[in-house]
Amino acid sequence: MAPGHVAYGLRAQYGLVVAPETVMAWERGEISPSSAELTALAGVLWCAPGELLAEPVTLREHRMARGLGADELARRIGLETSSYQKMEDTGRWKGNERQSAALATVLGLTLAQFVTATGKHEELAELLRSAVTTRWQAYVKPLGKLLPIPKQHLERVLEQLHGDYQSRMVATLSWGGGQGEAASGDAGREFLTGIVDRFWQLAGGAA
């Protein structure tokens, strides 16, 4: 179908007035269709909305890939539509633990996808760095509020991360000879830099 045919279908079937140039801009990825436009476009092209999207990253993209309206998603996770829409628009999720778990379930998000979509990556990294360099037990509750993950599983992962970090520091000091402290510092920084990836490995990516 040429862009003109698509534009005609949007107007004839769904009452949406869209110029062929806009359809071409969608194809090139220069602009994104609204939720209503994406749903209509999928109808014209006889496919699911998710098939028209690249790998979803934002909350809006994950919601659209599931073919859900903002009002329906808000209802299913226990939020007012206006509250959810504001979080989606700003990219900053502020739901509670129950709402976070519901969001991950309804949208089928892995832990990594949840953190990226809700804008929590830097906060997660900071909490994990503090957990492995101090007392990990003190960070179970803050991380539990951040992530839809069972407490016992989170405790096991944090204990393992803390143990890995401490073992690496001790081992590097033992091997380093006269440069033990400097080598240990480098090893520690390297570990902390990749701590989020290591966390995903241990957590299994489950939500």
Kindly describe this structure.
The protein has 207 residues and is mainly α. Helix content is 69%, strand content 0%. Helix 1 packs across helix 2, helix 5 packs across helix 6 and helix 11 packs across helix 13. The two termini are 40 Å apart.
What attributes characterize this protein structure?
mainly alpha, 207 residues
Please describe the topology of this protein.
Elements: H1 3-14, H2 20-28, H3 35-44, H4 59-65, H5 70-77, H6 81-90, H7 97-107, H8 111-117, H9 121-133, H10 140-146, H11 151-175, H12 180-193, H13 195-203
Tell me about the largest β-sheet: none
Total of DSSP H or I helical runs spanning 4+ residues:
13
What is the mean predicted local confidence, pLDDT? 85
Outline the low-pLDDT stretches: none
Radius of gyration from the alpha-carbon trace, in angstroms: 23 Å
- Overall number of strands: 0
Straight-line distance between termini: 40 Å
Overall helicity: 55-70%
What's the short version?
The chain is mainly alpha-helical. Helices cover about 70% and strands about 0% of the residues.
